[in-house]
Design brief:
Number of helices: 10
CATH class of the largest domain: Mainly Alpha
CATH architecture of the largest domain: Orthogonal Bundle
Distance between the termini: 65 Å
Shape: elongated
Number of strands: 0
CATH superfamily of the largest domain: Tetracycline Repressor, domain 2
Largest sheet: none
Strand content: under 5%
Oligomer: single chain
CATH topology of the largest domain: Tetracycline Repressor, domain 2
Radius of gyration: 19 Å
Helix content: over 70%
Number of domains: 2
Length: 189
Amino acid sequence: MSPRADAVRSRERILEVARQHDARSLRLNDIAREAGVGIGTVYRHFPTVHALIEALSLDSLTRLIDAARVAIAEPDALAALRGFLEHALDLQLADAGLEAVLIDLARTDPAVHSECAAARSTVSSGYADVLARAQRDGVVRDDISSAQLQQLVCGIEHAVRLGAPADRHVLLDVLLAGIRPVPAAVTAR
């Protein structure tokens, strides 16, 4: 059974109002008041702030999935990895809630937001595929996991937010240099 038209309108109005706020400081009561709906309506659609943040981040997740597909099609593994990580960082800087959606798996209720859980799973697979290819081609060390790579991108996001937007390029360069394979002579010490 499809949702009633007024329920769809209410949900869209809630999302529209929420997009105007910083995802890190959303308050469901404030969103309800500004959207002109009752708090019960907000909770029916989004039982938690995290559920609302997930809904707001679906577009970013879709764009990250697309970025992984583009990276996989890129013939040069290092260029593919760099392009993918740049895109992931740009999306996280533009969508303040995306980091929580990608990293805070414990707070996600797949029964509430199966669409977000499925998208996040696809994003994780994209990270793993891009990383595995870079490792196979010898441009990234073998002892880093895709989860660790996601966490490093989140760390760069935090560093850019603390510093200046122009810092993102040098910080991404440092990340890429840090995950390069370590020469055998260095590891033998």
